[in-house]
Amino acid sequence: MSVPQTQTAMVVETVGGPIIKKEIPVPKPGPDEVLVNIKFSGVCHTDLHAMNGDWPLPVKMPLVGGHEGAGVVVAKGELVTDIEIGDYAGIKWRSPCAPHARLSGYTVDGTFQQYAIGKAAHVARLPKDVSLEAVAPVLCAGITVFKALKESGARAGQWVAIVGAGGGLGSLALQYCKAMGIHAIGIDGGDEKRKMCESLGASAFVDYTKSKDVVADVKAATPDGFGPHGVIVLAVSEGPFQQATQYVRSRGTVVCVGLPAGAYLKAPVFDCVVRMIRIQGSYVGNRQDTAEALDFFTRGLIKAPYKVVGLTELSSVFDLMKANQIAGRMVVDTSR
Fold first, then answer.
1. Is the whole-model pTM more than 0.85?
2. pLDDT value at position 45?
3. Which ranges carry the Enoyl reductase (ER) domain (predicted)?
4. What is the pLDDT of residue 97?
5. Cα radius of gyration rounded to whole Å, the chain
């Protein structure tokens, strides 16, 4: 395939700085790498944290963000034998807990550009008949919530609360719950998000902006009133993390996924001990989790609610994200 020498990219040059449209060189793959012509890339809250330098993990600068890129392999290194030119592939974050992991759109340039590098062993293998724009959000949001549900230990017929259910991750978490036979309680704010969550299979919805007692309302949403067996906390503020331990049922699991800047976990030790509550972190997913999460998508059980905008509109997407005005996921088209 013909590969150009330069490409359009959206670049952050300093921590907390603006996103700038630039023409930059197209990178060349190393021996164990592939070059993917990114067609579409989902936009994740992690991308906002990266450009603002919110986390204690040092971020590359200048930075091309993005880690939900879906596209076509156009070049590969000489050691790559199990993926071919023309194959569909997804560039995502590397497997969790790997030492010195290369994190797309954080420690290495990511998918807010037309051509991006990925390690051949870690790019997601996508079927040729898949919609690249529709699958892009699954490469982070989908894998992340699928892994979190596995970590919760929830089984078919049990109840799980999804905090932040109306966002990009939450909208997929609701669908994974439905596909796995788990009853979901969506927790979020606003009528638009209520409507979307109910349409995606939420068995109940608690609007934290209208509720006088979120803890009581979440417990009441379960048939026995004891609260959900698991809680997936996708929030971008600290309060919901503290609150989750109050309404999860005894022997339940609170799975922490969201990463609000500077936040801490706090829960009463006595309550956690006598009620045998488990607090669990969950971070992206490994290659097996990726394959399983994508299988739900290819079988038509998962469909990310998303809106496509041009790559050059990325700055306005982050403005909407900061204002908590995005229902579902935003996906950028790198051709415009």
1. yes
2. 84
3. 13-332
4. 64
5. 20
What would the pLDDT profile of 65-124 be if each residue is shown by its tens digit?
999 999 999 999 999 999 999 999 999 987 666 666 788 899 999 999 999 999 999 999
* All residues at 6 or more sequence positions from 60 whose CB lies less than 8 Å from its CB, including other chains: 106, 107, 108, 109
| Rounded alpha-carbon distances, angstroms, from residue 333 to 14, 45, 171 | 24, 18, 21
Burial 5-24 (b: 16+ CB within 10 A, else e): eebbbbbbeeeeeebeeeeb
Question: Can you tell me whether residue 212 is helix, strand or coil?
Answer: coil
> Helix-strand-coil percent breakdown of the chain, rounded to 5?
30, 25, 45
Lookup result for tokens 């949001």: 141
At position 219, the amino acid (one-letter code) is K
Closest CA to 125 of 112, 138, 114, 106: 138
Sheet of 63-64, strands arranged across: 19-25, 6-12, 63-64
In the block, residue with structure tokens 């596909």: 179
DSSP string for residues in 97-160: T-TT---BTTTB--SSBSEEEEETTTSEEE-TTS-HHHHGGGGTHHHHHHHHHHHHT--TT-EE
Query: Which residue, among 197, 178, 175, 179, has the nearest Cα to 188 in the 3D structure?
Result: 197
Distances from the Cα of 13 to the Cα of 114, 128, 245, angstroms: 18, 35, 40
Which of 269, 288, 287, 289 lies closest to 279 in space, CA to CA?
269
CA distances from 10 to 20, 132, 157, 235, 310 (A): 5, 20, 45, 26, 11
Within 8 A by CB and 6+ apart from 129, the residues are none
Predicted pLDDT of residue 96: 62
Do 232 and 145 form a contact (C-beta atoms < 8 A)?
yes
CB neighbours (10 Å) of residue 243? 21
